[in-house]
Amino acid sequence: MWDNLSLKEVVECANDPYPSIRKWAKDTGKKVVGSTIADVPEEIIHAFGFLPVALIGTQKPLKKAPAKLPDNACSLARSNLELVMSYEGDLFDGFVLPQVCDTTQHLSDIWRINFPDKYVESFLAPRQADRPSARYWVKEEIERLISSLSKWTGKTVKDDDLKESIKIFNENKALLTEIYEIKRRNPAAITNKELFALIKLSMQVDKAELNKSIKKIKDNLDTNAKADGYTDVIMVGITCDPPEIFDLFDEIKINIAGDTLITGTRYLQGIVPEKGGPVEDLTEIYGPPPHAEAFIENGGPIDALTARHFRRGFYSPIHDDVFKNFEEVKALYKATNAKAIVYIHIEFCESEEYDLPDLKNMIRKEGIPMHVVDTEYQTTSLSHVRTRLQAFFESLKGGSL
Question: By the 8 A CB rule, do 340 and 396 touch?
Fold first, then answer.
């Protein structure tokens, strides 16, 4: 199904993965479990024998969601709700919904009301992630999710099942990271759209199959392709949709050398430490040495998944240190030798509305060029985005920024 895709086919499939997911479900007889972003431990869903599918909105028209969520609700939340209410709801046997903001908290209730015949579970990530107690919370949530899935399925998942899923998912992220590094060194080897399509599709289809395609794609990349005239930037935000935005970047030879997207680097940072992770990540959970060292030798996959949650990059200061976003963005900008920062702003996204004003002020005080792309799901025209993006980079090259 997904084990022998070309880059062109990856882009096409990522644009609308659901027909292929339907065929996979029919051919295998396995259940499909959707989850909104971010931070649901998808390895657990996979270990139960299901296909975890990240819900990342739809570009199709809104029909039913506006009756459930107001016009000033997060564009991604409305789009995800529309996706399952009008277009793909029958494909899914269940849903695991993280509550990462006020909108997603209410969305979980709306989901339960509208899908009473399906499995619906929440995953409650701690909002104040810098507290030591947050680590206990995450582990308990992971154990609660396993218990809930066990009750639904009547199946008990074993450590070996989790370890096998972790191995497959880690391989996927490692392969994608290698391709990203090739792109950093030579932006002509793979386009922005192709790279981020690979990441998006990895979040939505069977990774054991897709990994075979990714290996072939990586091995066939032309790392000697001529790469003159590219401008390196970093992309900041949560998601970048519609995918045609990447076409605009490729059109004017903007190379995304780094990002903070959930559908980008933040996903790739989700490699699970297969022995639990470094001591400094674990001391607050298991106490001072020798307890943490003992865990590294003996800790199980649940402990490793817990450690992974806190090793990922910044998500929002609603959940963490208010200055962490700025510091991580500035560090990424310097590490990649980028020429500018491009922030993808989803209309009415609660956490981005919270982040953006302070981030803009702090970035501009540093003298770093920054451009904000305002977008939303169901966008029908990008002509205004193209015009503003072209003007920004012409100014950048002319030295007026």
Answer: yes
Q: How many CB atoms lie within 10 A of CB 354?
A: 16
Domain assignment present for residue 224? The answer is no
Spatial neighbors of 303 by CB under 8 A, at least 6 apart, are: 139, 276, 282, 285, 295
- Taking the C-alpha atoms of residue 3 and residue 206, their distance in angstroms, rounded to an integer, is 9
393 occurs within a structural domain = no
Is 288 a domain residue?
no
Please choose, from the candidates 157, 135, 209, the residue with its C-alpha nearest in 3D space to the C-alpha of residue 48: 157
How far is Cα of residue 325 from the mean position of the Cα atoms in its chain?
16
CATH code for the domain of 110:
3.40.50.11890
Number of domains in the chain: 1
Residues 6+ apart with CB under 8 A from 11: 193, 194, 197
Phi-psi region of 237 (alpha: psi -120 to 50; beta: other; left: phi over 0): left
Q: What is the pLDDT of residues 102-151, one digit of tens each?
A: 888 888 899 999 999 999 999 998 877 777 788 889 999 999 999 999 99
The Cα–Cα gap between 317 and 327 comes to 12
Question: Where is 135: in which H helix or E strand?
Answer: helix 133-153
Mean pLDDT along residues 32-58: 96
- Residue 324 DSSP SS3: helix
What range does the domain containing 102 cover?
7-156
| Domain assignment of residue 149, yes or no | yes
